[in-house]
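User:
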Amino acid sequence: MDPVARDRAVRWMAELRAARYSAGFTQQDVATALGVRKSTVNQWENGHLASWERFCAEGREIGVRLVVVDQNGCVRDGLAEVVAGEPWARTELRRLAGVLRGERKGAGRSRASLAAEVGVSLWSFAHLERGQLNPRLVVLSAWVGSLKCDIRWQPVV
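Assistant: Predicted structure:
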């Protein structure tokens, strides 16, 4: 596992914790809303990486979502069509993946070169980029880092 990618993903979890504090939610509030134990939320916020679904669900509960910040510091956000019956985390993944796909194309990078740099198969990367495969947070972090971008939490408006 790439230590830089892991550190970036852990930072995202810490930023989510700060957003939770700012929104006035306790770990117990989040745990109850997500159907997990308070100790699980505590683990996520202290370096144990949550799944993509839990990561997004916690953000949704406290009113934030992820946006891409490009290498120039500009926030890049996208839209994804809401599909009936589709989990919210999948819609968010398609929205975020669309922005990252645009960044890849803008940088003139191929899927194959980025997949190799991220450390996943071309098949997996193609499915990630279409929002059809939930990423592990460290893979998302490597993907974002390979594009010289970052992601951050932003209030839902």
